[in-house]
Amino acid sequence: MRLDVITIFPEYLEPLRHALLGKAIEQNILSVGVHDLRQWATDVHKSVDDSPYGGGPGMVMKPAVWGPALDDVAQGCGLAALTKELSSSLPHKDKARHDDVEGVDPQRYQDISVREGEDPSLPLLIVPTPAGKPFTQADARAWSNEEHIVFACGRYEGIDQRVIDDAHNRYRVREVSIGDYVLIGGEVAVLVIAEAVVRLIPGVLGNRRSHEEDSFSDGLLEGPSYTKPREWRGLEVPEVLFSGNHAKVERWRRDQALLRTQQVRPELLDGVKLDHHDKKVLGLQ
Ligand code: ADE
Fold it and tell me: Is the pTM of this model over 0.90?
């Protein structure tokens, strides 16, 4: 997968070199380019924003800067070709991770993100904005199959809307929000989305079995986990986890997931198929 990020704060994207993403870069599963938007500014002050038409507070990012930046990055040409590749921060060697599942081939998710009338061969442009559609695990799964994702980081009051409208000619465009709160810019949202997507690429995080039990994968939040010691500060690990009975442990895990979801995010249960036992656990019958 190729990731390109366009931002006025390239240093903000430094975390992409570390940990899991750094490992993916090192394994040639991922390559990353972080581009300084100011390269495409043409005036002496390298300005990227201007006052909003119609008045109001803040500044709006200029189409004359964003347009050429998105043109170049879509094709990896012009000024975009001069950007240094992001390198991995640490050598990870071929050490197996604790979550690698032996003897199971990495498998791709089948999901794809193509809307009616869109050309699937175009790169995906993700524009983080609090005014976007909520980013979900289903998006992360679908986007983990992309060859080329470009992130456009807006700041101030956002990017001139015509940039987004025009980008549809060269990209499949997705405006997304990572939550109902307002950040100063899209950079942190890019880190969040990139991590959620890249960990699902086959070979990055063990394999598909490693995330099948994630929160949201079956529509439920994940229940509690425990490790050694068996007793800690007077608190015991639940007895059932020592039973050696796989079916019983799985049933207990699902019960815990159901109860946590009911307590913390009850609205999620509307999208989950519940059988007789599930309903009994939830006190619904
Ligand atoms: N930019 C500013 N706030 C944001 C949010 N909540 N999600 C995505 N991008 C943003």
Answer: yes
Residues 2 and 276: their CA atoms lie apart, in Å, by 45
Q: Which of 136, 183, 190 to mutate to test the pocket of ligand 1 (most atoms within 8 A of CB)?
A: 183
Ligand 1 within 6 A of CB of 157: no
Residue with tokens 């964003």: 66
Indicate if ligand 1 lies below 6 Å from the C-beta of 126. Answer: no
5 contacts 153 by C-beta, under 8 angstroms: yes
Phi, psi of 135 (to 5 degrees): -75, 130
Contacts for 220 with CB less than 8 Å, ≥ 6 apart:
254, 257, 258, 260, 261, 268, 272
What is the distance in A from the centroid of ligand 1 to the CA of 21? Answer: 21
Please tell me the predicted confidence (pLDDT) of residue 99: 53
DSSP-assigned beta bridge partners for residue 236: 231
> Of 155, 172, 199, 253, which residue is the catalytic one?
199
Q: How many Å apart are CA 252 and CA 153, to the nearest integer?
A: 43
What is the maximum alpha-carbon separation in the chain?
Answer: 71
Phi/psi region, residue 264 (left: phi>0; alpha: psi -120 to 50; beta: rest), is alpha
**Cα angle value 101/18/156 (rounded, 5°):** 125
3-state helix, strand, coil in the chain (%, to 5): 35, 15, 50
Q: To the nearest whole percent, how much of the chain has pLDDT over 90? A: 82
